[in-house]
Amino acid sequence: MEIKINDLEHIREAARQFINAMGDQHVFAFYGHMGAGKTTFIKAICEELGVDDVVTSPTFAIVNEYTPHSPLLAPHASIYHFDFYRIKKLEEVYDMGYEDYFYSDGLCFIEWPEMMEELLPEGATKVQIAENPDGTRTVSW
Hints:
This protein has four helices and seven strands, in the order E-H-E-H-E-E-H-H-E-E-E. The protein is of the alpha/beta class. A seven-stranded mixed β-sheet has the order 1-7-6-2-5-4-3, with helices on one face. It is globular and about 40 Å long.
């Protein structure tokens, strides 16, 4: 599947399209270079799912937890937003108890999964965000 984001004014529409296509999946690994828009797109998804908190990159905390207020997420009590950019060793991921998140009923949105890819659950959805020459973004999975 592929979604094109023309500009920030249309990112919430793209987030709704993504949500409608999520199906039963609950772990999403977001790939893309620095500045591609991973955090911005995840923020839009969270807002569309009814997160009232300010959604920010968990660069230093590694994981942020949000409580959605959307009937679309009845089985999901939480959204977990990860940023593994600063991870240097897999032991750091083990120490944070990644299994408690990845194998819960919560939605998991992971930035920089390259840093711990071998720990992704089987069936995790790999999402690529690419910046196009005209400044638009393409989200594909």
